[in-house]
Amino acid sequence: MRVPNSVVLPVGTHVDCCRDEEVEEKRRDIMAKIAAMLVERRSNLTHFMDNLEGSEEPEFYVDQWERLKEMESRTLTILNLVAVNCTDHRDIKKLEATIVQHVKNEELFPEVIRVLPPVYRQVEAAIVDIAQSEEMAGHGMMDLSYLLSKLSQHKHLASLGRELLQDILRYLHRVGLVVWYEEIKHLESTVFLQPTFLITMFKASV
User: Fold this and answer.
1) N or C end of the chain, less CB within 10 A?
2) Which domain of life is it from (predicted)?
3) Residue at which a domain ends, from 69, 104, 139
4) What's the CATH code of the domain at 137?
């Protein structure tokens, strides 16, 4: 709900524990609850904005009102629920095919056919090489400036600039190859070339 233009595919598991008529009944119930949740969300946002507008000094709450208005304008597409039996490999393949089919839908994902410049692939391949090299520390963290200098050592990336690298890192962060928290001040200069290390640390912390 907080991500602009989100597309959500609900997945129901444990189909093997239900009769066929129960699966359809539960599917309808879940989709109805999701629809009701979205209606309630819009109603709550409207209520919060009305309260801010009706306050004694609404000018103090302009920033909050604008954030709520932005959330209200965001679209949230809910696809039909897919019911799967996780013990049946055929159902897993069916789910995989459904996801791919939706991802290829240009109406849902208009940028899916965007062609990336060759330098994106070149930087991606170079980062993979760096992450897998013996000199890479186990935590997989690397300073952004140092990463740029390492990449610039590649002949075809000698002219790579910091701004372009940041654009590429945003893309690689979105696809999950690296993790780069540029919005967090204390982490904006650190790139995690091995996201699995973060997962291990989070699990250990929890």
Assistant:
1) C
2) Eukaryota
3) 104
4) 1.10.10.10
